[in-house]
């Protein structure tokens, strides 16, 4: 595989077992494709420094709610991290180095700051892939609270999650257990990359869209919709052999897909059906 050095580092990181993947490093390797001169160690050291400063502020009691409150005060009151509600789709909100530098982000990237700082003070937390709004929670038995890293570390409960989902989708949503499922490290990275993919697709930055798709497929090679999208973007970029290969594989996997007739017409246009 002829990857850039940043892509090679990302690829090497995700070859480990899921629990061994270092999310901060992987996220910085994602950013390194955007910023080739980025030094990941600089930002890993910044996270270490945050954790050291936070450790000095922790209460004697290690009760989970007290720890969450201490993290919140440090990240949001002292360091002024916040959700970028004014320009949510600014690509910088999705790159981990920018989030640390600017102290602005979207739910998943602010959640990553929170998770990494919490991990460094030995406070176990996990990501929760709620549709439309990423959350985190303490990974402690019988503690059923969620933390909204985008909204100042607000502590919420399952009922609040149901209300938020109804607001996001502008209709009544009944909470399903899978909506609050813990995400794996690979799923976490794929969700970050999916955000980047759609931001750049909306901006018609096709090369950057393709780069995001390719890394999602490194994480999950069998995602049929990503295979299709790589084929369609490759077609738009004039890489017809790649487009044909991906679109043929897509149809082989899901011959009855809703868009199968459109894909077949495209393949006919390319002289391959």
Automatic annotation (TrEMBL):
Signal peptide: none annotated. Residues 42-193 form the Protein SirB1 N-terminal domain. Gene3D superfamilies: Tetratricopeptide repeat domain (1.25.40.10). InterPro entries: SirB1_N, TPR-like_helical_dom_sf. Belongs to the UPF0162 family. This is Protein SirB1 N-terminal domain-containing protein. It comes from Nostoc punctiforme (strain ATCC 29133 / PCC 73102). The lineage of its organism: Bacteria, Bacillati, Cyanobacteriota, Cyanophyceae, Nostocales.
């Amino acid at each position: 595989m002829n990857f850039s050095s940043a892509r090679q580092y990302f690829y090497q990181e995700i070859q480990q077992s899921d629990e061994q993947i270092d999310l901060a490093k992987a996220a910085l390797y994602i950013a390194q494709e955007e910023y080739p001169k980025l030094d990941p160690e600089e930002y890993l050291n910044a996270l270490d420094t945050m954790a050291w400063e936070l450790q000095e502020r922790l209460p004697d009691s290690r009760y989970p709610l007290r720890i969450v409150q201490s993290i919140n005060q440090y990240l949001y009151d002292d360091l002024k991290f916040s959700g970028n509600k004014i320009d949510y789709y600014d690509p910088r909100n999705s790159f981990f180095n920018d989030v640390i530098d600017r102290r602005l982000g979207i739910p998943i990237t602010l959640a990553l700051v929170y998770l990494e700082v919490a991990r460094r003070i030995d406070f176990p937390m996990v990501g929760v892939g709620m549709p439309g709004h990423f959350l985190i929670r303490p990974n402690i038995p019988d503690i059923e609270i969620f933390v909204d890293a985008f909204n100042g570390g607000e502590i919420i409960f399952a009922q609040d999650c149901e209300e938020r989902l109804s607001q996001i989708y502008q209709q009544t949503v009944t909470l399903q257990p899978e909506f609050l499922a813990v995400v794996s490290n690979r799923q976490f990275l794929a969700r970050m990359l999916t955000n980047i993919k759609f931001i750049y697709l909306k901006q018609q930055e096709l090369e950057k869209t393709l780069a995001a798709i390719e890394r999602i497929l490194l994480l999950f090679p069998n995602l049929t919709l990503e295979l299709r999208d790589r084929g369609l973007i490759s077609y738009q970029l004039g890489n017809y052999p790649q487009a044909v290969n991906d679109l043929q594989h897509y149809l082989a996997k899901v011959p009855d897909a809703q868009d199968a007739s459109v894909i077949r017409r495209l393949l006919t246009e390319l002289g391959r059906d």
